[in-house]
Amino acid sequence: MTQQPFSRPGAIDLSALKRTAAPPPSAAPGGGGGGAAAPGGSAYSLPVDEQGFQSVLEASMTAPVVLVFHSPSRSPESSQLAQDVSTVAEEYDGRFLAATVDIDANPQIAAAMQIPQVPLMLVLLDGRPVTQPIPGAPPIEDIRALFNQLAQQLTAQGITTRHQPRGPVPTLGAEGEEPEVDPRYAAAQDALGEGDIDKAVAEYQKLVDTNPADAEAVAGLAMAKVLQRTQGVDLNAARQAAADNPDDVDAQTLVADLDLLGGHVEDAFGRLIRLVARTSDDDRAKARDHLLGLFAAVGNDDPRVLAGRRDLASALF
């Protein structure tokens, strides 16, 4: 989860689903055949059947879709995961759409997606998987942390589109309307969307210089700098250089950047914390400062950052 937060390895092969009959004209876009145990649909989540799966792929052309594969009969905790992901998706007002698949009721989807086990999460964007499959059923707070990281990565890449509600939007009061994208970040996000990372860094830097307390600008700047540092980098060569030179700060920090962009946040933090522990003077300061930049990119409220700060303090003292 190529050298950016989301990879695009290829489109999903839907040939296994083409034998299914077309849905009747009155069918809802997401389908409703997920089985009685599947979480019900709401504004930004829906159960998916074989007939509605194509529309889910099409929805991922607008904004990310988080697919959750579950089996009420074989893994009750997997259905709890589906419900938790649906709950968290609602909190992001369209940044994500949660699509839950009961593989007992829809075995052809599991076959087409080559699902090895449940529970399993997968993020789709542009009709393709953009993360490695995420197994297991983490607690809801860890799911929120994952969504927070993905949202920050999307913002850093200039991806700000949202899904339209698929059902009733929860009542939030008179001021509960979905907020518009903050125009302050438009220039930086547009630059990222155009692939001009240097310009994005400059635009985010202006925002941070104007208001150092702007947490979103700080996170955007930190992530844009990660993208800037890893432009054109050969992943395999970078990893080999780091393996050959374990105390080379530049080699280790580059791989930490690549790990972060690949979604391996704890690996990135752990690499630099260990580097801090075994270096000294300028090398230690450089590794520490780089790690603090990665903390900012992920977000200071993220549980992994809080744990990383504790580990960094132990490595320093």
Oligomer status: single chain
Along the chain, the helix and strand elements come as EHEHEHEEEHHHHHHHHH
Percentage of β-strand residues: 5-15%
According to DSSP, the number of beta strands is: 6
Within CATH, the superfamily of the largest domain carries the name: Glutaredoxin
What low-confidence regions span 5 or more consecutive residues with pLDDT below 50?
1-38, 169-179
Pfam family, one: TPR_20
Organism: Nocardioides gansuensis
Protein name: Co-chaperone YbbN
Domain Thioredoxin: 16-152
Characterization of the model:
InterPro entries: Thioredoxin-like_sf (IPR036249), Thioredoxin_domain (IPR013766), TPR-like_helical_dom_sf (IPR011990). This is Co-chaperone YbbN. One of its GO terms (biological process) is response to stress. The chain is an alpha/beta fold. Strands 1, 2, 3, 4, 5 and 6 form a six-stranded mixed beta sheet that branches. A hairpin with a 2-residue loop joins strand 4 and strand 5. It has two domains: 142 residues, Glutaredoxin, CATH 3.40.30.10; 134 residues, Serine Threonine Protein Phosphatase 5, Tetratricopeptide repeat, CATH 1.25.40. The N terminus is likely disordered. The chain is built from twelve helices and six strands. The relative contact order is 0.11. The longest helix has 18 residues.
